Each structure stands twice: as structure tokens, then as C-alpha cells.
């Protein structure tokens, strides 16, 4: 059970790490625009393609998470609780246009074209401060006309996007998508929390029994299936640091992302 929980936590951590690398890439490009003056056409195109690649990495890792989400739930839960949890991604899809857009964009990026259509580099004076500040930004965006001609972008989502102002900036869409996925993962944690606590207690009790019988032993403690003659008939599961420390580490590594779409890095 703990290995099952760790598997999904690894996938969650994986796509958050890809998201972090995407945001770091955007910050780097904004800093480059603020300092350097050799931002030629080829330089702009290279930056645009790099961010496209990072977005595709992010979307692919999210696809792995979402596709395996119900499989992990099936192996851990049952009944109404299982059904409710398996519907968590669908609820996120229904409540967020950003979520729907990024899901459609993933299919488009996997089968048709890069996800970034336009790449704007801007430096603007902020007159609300004294002295004035020159702020540098990069803004990857979508082109509705290109999406309208695409075969792999969901038409219903396209119709919803027609009511938004152009250009359709990708950064706000991605940030709200990440926020919604955090909410989905929070539902998973809430549904499996009692199972995790019981499993963790069982593991710790088994380790305590071993160390009480063999005090001072430095051997790793494992659980393994045996037959009636106490012969090993399956692969061992290590009960030492592997599961009792790694899973809490994964769960604590990333902070709460509530209202994440409203956060900004000010530097």
C-alpha cells in the first residue's frame, strides 16, 4: 500500500518538477531580454522553441499522472469513496477553462504542432513606483486562428476561448492548471490518509518487533511472502527507510498550491 502511494506521489512530484523547470526557463528568458541586446529573430525563435519543449515535457508528465490516477485509486479504495475520487479530475475539468484548455493543448502538442504560437518580449516602464522601474517580461501565447485550423484541438474548448481577449497568454492558463491539479491530488491524499496511517503503523510495528528480538542489528528489515515451509515465494518489500521515510518526504516536499494562479515571483 505504501509503495502504491509512493508511486503516485513520485508522478505528482515529477510533473511539478517539470513545471518548476518551465517557470525557471521563463524567468531566465526575461532576464536575458533585460540584459542582452542580441535578441535576433533566430534568438527569439530559439527561446520560443525551448519553452515549447518545456511545456510539452510538463504536459506529458501530467498525462502519466492523470492516466494512472484511477489505477492507483482502484488498488487502494472501493465503493462510493473510490467512485468519488476517480471523478476528481473530471470535476477539475468542469470547473476550470484553463484546465480544459491545457488538456486540449496537450492533445494538439502530441499530434500536431508545438504549443507556443507567439513569443513576445517586452520592456515597459512602471510609472506607479518612484523612481520608475523598467520591467522585462516574456509572454508565450496561443493563436486562435491557428487553433481553429487544427485537427487535434477540441472544438468545444476553442468556442469557449473565443470569448477571451487576444492574445491568449499561456502563463496564466498553466498556473491555474497546476492549481487545479493540486486540488485533485489533495483529494487523493484525503481519501487515502487513513489507509496510509494504518499501513505506516503496521510497518513500524513490524520493525519494532524485529529490533526488539535482535537489538543492535544493522540489517535491513524486509517483508516477504513465504510458503508453508517458510521458503521465499515472492519479492521482498523493504520496511526500513525505503517506505517509512521516502513517502513522507515526497508528500512534504511541495507546499500547498491553493490559489497558486495568483502567485508571482517579485525579484
Strands in their spatial order, largest beta sheet: 1-2-3
What is the number of domains? Answer: 1
Could you tell me the radius of gyration in angstroms?
24 Å
- H/E element string? HHHHHEEHHEHEEHH
Low-confidence stretches: none
Count of individual beta strands: 5
| Tally of helical segments | 10
Shape: elongated
Main beta sheet, described?
Answer: 3 strands, antiparallel
Query: Into which percentage range does the β-strand content fall?
Result: 5-15%
Q: For the terminal residues, how far apart are their CA atoms?
A: 43 Å
Description:
By secondary structure, the protein is mainly alpha-helical. It has one domain (2-193). It is 64% helix and 9% strand. It is built from ten helices and five strands. It has helices at 2-35, 41-76, 79-86, 88-95, 97-111, 144-149, 155-161, 170-213, 241-244, 246-253, and strands at 118-126, 133-142, 168-169, 222-223, 237-238. It has a three-stranded antiparallel beta sheet. A two-stranded antiparallel sheet has the order 4-5. A hairpin with a 6-residue loop joins strand 1 and strand 2 (133-142). Helix 2 (41-76) packs across helix 5, helix 5 (97-111) packs across helix 7 (155-161) and helix 5 packs across helix 8 (170-213). The model has no long low-confidence stretch (mean pLDDT 92).
Amino acid at each position: 500500500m505504501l509503495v502504491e502511494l509512493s508511486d503516485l506521489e513520485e508522478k505528482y512530484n515529477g510533473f511539478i518538477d517539470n513545471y518548476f523547470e518551465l517557470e525557471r526557463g521563463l524567468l531566465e528568458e526575461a532576464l536575458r531580454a533585460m540584459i542582452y541586446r542580441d535578441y535576433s529573430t533566430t534568438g527569439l525563435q530559439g527561446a520560443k522553441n525551448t519553452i515549447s519543449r518545456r511545456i510539452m515535457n510538463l504536459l506529458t508528465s501530467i498525462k502519466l499522472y492523470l492516466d494512472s490516477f484511477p489505477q492507483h485509486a482502484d488498488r487502494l479504495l472501493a465503493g462510493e469513496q473510490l467512485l468519488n475520487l476517480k471523478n476528481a479530475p473530471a470535476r477539475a475539468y468542469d470547473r476550470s477553462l484553463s484546465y480544459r484548455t491545457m488538456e486540449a493543448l496537450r492533445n494538439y502538442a502530441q499530434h500536431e504542432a508545438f504549443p507556443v504560437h507567439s513569443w513576445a518580449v517586452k520592456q515597459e516602464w512602471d510609472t506607479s513606483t518612484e523612481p520608475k522601474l523598467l520591467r522585462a517580461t516574456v509572454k508565450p501565447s496561443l493563436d486562435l486562428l491557428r487553433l481553429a485550423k487544427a485537427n487535434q484541438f477540441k472544438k468545444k474548448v476553442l468556442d469557449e476561448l473565443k470569448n477571451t481577449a487576444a492574445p491568449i497568454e499561456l502563463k496564466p492558463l498553466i498556473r491555474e492548471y497546476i492549481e487545479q491539479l493540486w486540488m485533485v491530488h489533495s483529494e487523493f491524499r484525503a481519501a487515502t490518509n487513513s489507509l496510509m496511517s494504518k499501513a505506516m503503523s503496521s510497518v513500524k510495528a513490524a520493525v519494532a518487533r524485529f529490533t526488539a528480538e535482535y537489538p543492535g542489528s544493522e540489517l535491513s528489515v524486509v517483508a516477504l511472502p513465504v510458503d508453508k515451509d517458510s521458503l521465499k515465494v515472492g519479492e521482498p518489500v523493504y520496511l526500513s527507510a525505503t517506505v517509512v521515510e521516502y513517502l513522507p518526504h515526497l508528500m512534504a516536499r511541495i507546499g500547498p498550491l491553493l490559489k497558486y494562479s495568483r502567485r508571482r515571483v517579485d525579484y
